[in-house]
Amino acid sequence: MRLHVGCAMWTHTPWQGRFLPHPLPPGERLAAYATWCNAVEGNTTFYATPARASVESWARQTPPGFRFVVKLPKPITHERRLTGADEELRTFLETMEPLGPRIHALWVQLPGSFGPDGLGTLAAFLRRLPGSYRCAVEVRHPAFFADERAARLLERVLAGVGAEWVPFDTVTLFRSPPTTDAERDAWTKKPRVPRRSAALTDRPIVRYLGRDDVDRTVEGWQHWVGTVAGWLREGRSPTVFVHTPDNAEALPLARRFHDAVRALLPQLEPLPEPLPAEPLTLF
Description:
Elements: E1 4-7, H1 26-33, E2 39-42, H2 52-61, E3 67-71, H3 74-79, H4 86-96, E4 103-109, H5 119-128, E5 135-138, H6 143-146, H7 148-159, E6 164-165, E7 168-169, H8 171-174, H9 181-189, E8 205-209, H10 214-220, H11 222-233, E9 239-243, H12 250-264
Parallel strand pairs: 1-2, 1-9, 2-3, 3-4, 4-5, 5-6, 7-8, 8-9
Helix pairs in contact: 1-2, 5-7, 11-12
C-alpha cells in the first residue's frame, strides 16, 4: 500500500537552507527533493520541452518508484488544441523516454475555453497516444462541472482509453477573501470550480490548493484525507499534489498530508527520511 505525494516543483527559493540543502548544483536538487516526497508535477514541460540530457539527469536522481506527472507542452494543448501537433508530441515523448516507468501519467491540461464541443477532438487525441503511457486530463471549462451530461460524456471519453480526470481543488482558496499578495494573485489566475472527488481508474491524481496559512490549508484538506484513505482501502494507488499560493510551506505540507492518511492506515508505506538541510557536524 503506497501513497505518492508531492509538490508543483522540486526547487523553490523559500525551501533553500530551510528544508533542502543550499547551495546545491542543479544535478542534485531533484535528488534532495526526492528524500521529502515521492512524486512531483512536471509543470516546466508545459513551457518548453527540456533537453534530453536534463531528463536523463532527472532519472538518475530519482528511485524507480518515484512518480512524474508530466504536463504536455503548451503548443500541443493550448495553441494547437490537440490537432496537428504530431511532430511536437513525438519530440516530447522521445525526450521523456529516459524516465521510463517513473512517468506515472501524461498530464493533458486543457485551457478553460476547451468545452464539451471539443470532446471528439480529445477522444481522437487520446486514442493516438502510445498505449504504454497512462493519461490524466484536467479540464477547466465550467460546463464540465455544472452540466451533468457534459461530465458524463467526458467520463465516457476518458474511460475509453483508461484515462483519469484530474481534479484541481481550489475550494479552500476561494472560501474567504485573500490575505496575502500570493493569494490575491492566485484569485485572478486559478479556476473557481466545484470540488470533484470521483476516481475513474486505479491511479487517481489530486491537485489540492490551500492557503498561505498552514492551519487553513490543513483544515481544507480533511475531505481528501478521508477520500484518499478510502481509495487505498479499495486497492487504488493515489497521487496527491499539495499547493499553496506561495508554496513556501508546500514541501513539509505534502509530508504532513501523507502523515494524516497514514494515521488512518498505519500499514501505509512511510516516506523516506528527508536529507538534512544543514550539513552534519561532529559537534
